[in-house]
C-alpha cells in the first residue's frame, strides 16, 4: 500500500501550524507521507457551486495523478479537501455515467482515472492504522489535566461516514484520551463553523462560531481541538467580531489542530508543534506541558 | 457577460431536473415528503428566504424562479446536515449546489448576496495558479465587491503575517499542470 499526501491550499498559508505539526508528527510516528507532486486545488465549495461536473473533474485530476504514481491512498488533513476529493472518488465510482463524463474531461488533459484511489483524512489514518495505543506507547508528555473540547466540524463525517459517525463522532475523543487529555462533553462537536459564510455572510457565521466557543467554555474546556485548517481560522480569527456581537472574546480559549497536541504529547521540539503560531496564545492553557 | 434571454420558470425547472438527475441519488428528489427535517437540521435555514423544504415545494409548484432570485442557496454552508438526515435520501447539499450553478449560469445575482463574486474570485485565482492563494482570493473578492470590507480584514491579515501564516506569493502547479487544468475546464464547462 502506498500513500501520498495532499496538503491543500490553506495548509501552506493560514494552516501553517497544522502543516508543521502534521509533518513532524508523521515523521515521529514513522508514517511516510510524500507530497502528491503537482497537486491542484480541490475546487472546494466554489467550484461545486459553479458546475458540479467541473468541480468533480478538477478534483479528479489529483486522483488520476495519485493513480499514475502507483499509490492507492490520498491523505489530507483539510476536511474541505477531504469531502471534495472523496466526493469525486465516490461519485465517479457509484455513477458510471458521471464517471464517464469526468473521464472525458480528464482525457482532454491526457489523463485517466480508473477508480482505485481511497481518499482518507489523516485522523482516520492515525486512529485506524497507526492506532492510539502506539501513540500512547510513544508518549513523552502526558496531557493529563488539560481539558479539551474535540471539534470535528462538518465535512470530516458528512456526508461520508467512512470512519466515524456523521452526527456524533468519537475518534478524536479517543485519540485525545490516549494522550491522557480530559475530553469534555461537547454536544456541538459536529455543528457548522460557518465555512465560507465568514467571508460572504459574516454576521451569520460569527454567531455560529460564538455558539461553538460558548459551548466549549461552558463545558470548562481550556482549548478547542480541530481537524481542519478552515475551521481553525474561523474559530480563532474573528474573536473581535464575536465580542462585538455577543459580548465575549474567549481570550483564554486557544484553538489547536489535533496534530499540534499530539506533537506536544510526543515531546517534539516546541517549534515543530506550531503552538506559537496561533492567534490566541497557547499559554496558559499549555504552560504545564511545553 | 453576454445578454442571455431570460429563461422561463419551466425552462429553469427542466434544466435543474436534468442536472439533478445526472447525480447519484438525484431521482430521490421526487420522493420528498415535506417533513422539514432538512430545514430543522440546517444551521442557517432561519436566514434563508426559502428554507430547504420550501425550496422543493417551490420546485413542485413551478416556482423555481423565485428560489433562484432568493438568498436561499447562497446561505448554504455545505455542512451536509440535511443530506445525512433526510429520510428520503435526498442529497439536499447537491440540490443547493445545482441551484447555485443554475444561478451562476443564468447570471442571476440577488441583491446583497456576494457569494457569486467569491466563487468567481476563487475560480479566477485557481485558473491563474492551479492553487488558491488566500491573499489573492481575498484581494480579488473585496476589489470586486467592497474594498472597505477588505480593509476591515487587514488586522487579521497582519496578525497572520506576524505568525508566518500569510505569504503574498503562492505556490503554483507546473506549466504542464496548468495546461491540463485548462483542458479539463474547457471540456467540463462545454460538456
Please tell me about this protein's structure.
Chain A contains 14 helices and 7 strands. Chain A has 290 residues and is of the alpha/beta class. Chain A folds into 2 domains: 3-122, Glutathione S-transferase Yfyf (Class Pi), Chain A, domain 2 (Up-down Bundle), CATH 1.20.1050; 132-289, Rossmann fold. In chain A, the strands form 2 sheets. In chain A, strands 5-4-6-7 form a 4-stranded parallel sheet, sandwiched between helices. In chain A, helix 8 (171-178) links the parallel strand 4 (147-150) and strand 5. Chain A is globular and about 55 Å long. Chain B is mainly alpha-helical. Chain B has 2 domains: 9-105, Fumarate Reductase Iron-sulfur Protein, Chain B, domain 2 (Orthogonal Bundle), CATH 1.10.1060; 115-190, no CATH class. Helix content of chain B is 57%, strand content 0%. Chain B contains 11 helices and no strands. The model of chain B has no long low-confidence stretch (mean pLDDT 92). At the A-B interface, helix 2, helix 3, helix 4, helix 5 and helix 9 of A face helix 5, helix 6, helix 7, helix 8 and helix 10 of B.
Amino acid at each position: 500500500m502506498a500513500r501520498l499526501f495532499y496538503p491543500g491550499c490553506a495548509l501552506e498559508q493560514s494552516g501553517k501550524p497544522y502543516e508543521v505539526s502534521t509533518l513532524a508528527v508523521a515523521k515521529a510516528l514513522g508514517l511516510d507521507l510524500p507530497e502528491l507532486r503537482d497537486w491542484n486545488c480541490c475546487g472546494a465549495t466554489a467550484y461545486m457551486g459553479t458546475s458540479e461536473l467541473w468541480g468533480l473533474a478538477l478534483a479528479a485530476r489529483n486522483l488520476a495523478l495519485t493513480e499514475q504514481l502507483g499509490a492507492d491512498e490520498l491523505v489530507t488533513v483539510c476536511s474541505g479537501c477531504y469531502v471534495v476529493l472523496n466526493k469525486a472518488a465516490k461519485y465517479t465510482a457509484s455513477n458510471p455515467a458521471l464517471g464517464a463524463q469526468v473521464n472525458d474531461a480528464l482525457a482532454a488533459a491526457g489523463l485517466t482515472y480508473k477508480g482505485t484511489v481511497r481518499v482518507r483524512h489523516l485522523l482516520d489514518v492515525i486512529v485506524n492504522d497507526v492506532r492510539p495505543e502506539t501513540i500512547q506507547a510513544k508518549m513523552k508528555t502526558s496531557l493529563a489535566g488539560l481539558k479539551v473540547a474535540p471539534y470535528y466540524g462538518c465535512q470530516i463525517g458528512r456526508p461520508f461516514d467512512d470512519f466515524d459517525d456523521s452526527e456524533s463522532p468519537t475518534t478524536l475523543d479517543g485519540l485525545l484520551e490516549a494522550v491522557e487529555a480530559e475530553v469534555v462533553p461537547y454536544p456541538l462537536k459536529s455543528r457548522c463553523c460557518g465555512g465560507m459564510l465568514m467571508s460572504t455572510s459574516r454576521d451569520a457565521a460569527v454567531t455560529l462560531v460564538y455558539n461553538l466557543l460558548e459551548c466549549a467554555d461552558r463545558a470548562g474546556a481550556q482549548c478547542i481541538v480541530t481537524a481542519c485548517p478552515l475551521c481553525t481560522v474561523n474559530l480563532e480569527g474573528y474573536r473581535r467580531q464575536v465580542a462585538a456581537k455577543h459580548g465575549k472574546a474567549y481570550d483564554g480559549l486557544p484553538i489547536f489542530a489535533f496534530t499540534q497536541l499530539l506533537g506536544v504529547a510526543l515531546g517534539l521540539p516546541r517549534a515543530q508543534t506550531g503552538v506559537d503560531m496561533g492567534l490566541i496564545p497557547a499559554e496558559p492553557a499549555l504552560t504545564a506541558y511545553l | 457577460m453576454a445578454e442571455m434571454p431570460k429563461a422561463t420558470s419551466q425552462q429553469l425547472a427542466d434544466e435543474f431536473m436534468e442536472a439533478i438527475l445526472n447525480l447519484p441519488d438525484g431521482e430521490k428528489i421526487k420522493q420528498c415528503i415535506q417533513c422539514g427535517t432538512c430545514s430543522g437540521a440546517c444551521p442557517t435555514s432561519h436566514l434563508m428566504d426559502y428554507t430547504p423544504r420550501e425550496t422543493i415545494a417551490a420546485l413542485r409548484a413551478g416556482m423555481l424562479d423565485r428560489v433562484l432570485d432568493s438568498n436561499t442557496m447562497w446561505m448554504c454552508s455545505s455542512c451536509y446536515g440535511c443530506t445525512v438526515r433526510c429520510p428520503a435520501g435526498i442529497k439536499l447539499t447537491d440540490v443547493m449546489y445545482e441551484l447555485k450553478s443554475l444561478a451562476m449560469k443564468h447570471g442571476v445575482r440577488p441583491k446583497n448576496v456576494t457569494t457569486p463574486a467569491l466563487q468567481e474570485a476563487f475560480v479566477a485565482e485557481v485558473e491563474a495558479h492551479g492553487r488558491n492563494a488566500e491573499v489573492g482570493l481575498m484581494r480579488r473578492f473585496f476589489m470586486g465587491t467592497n474594498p472597505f470590507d477588505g480593509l476591515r480584514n487587514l488586522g487579521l491579515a497582519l496578525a497572520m503575517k506576524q505568525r508566518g501564516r500569510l505569504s503574498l506569493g503562492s505556490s503554483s502547479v507546473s506549466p504542464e499542470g496548468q495546461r491540463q487544468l485548462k483542458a479539463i475546464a474547457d471540456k467540463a464547462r462545454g460538456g
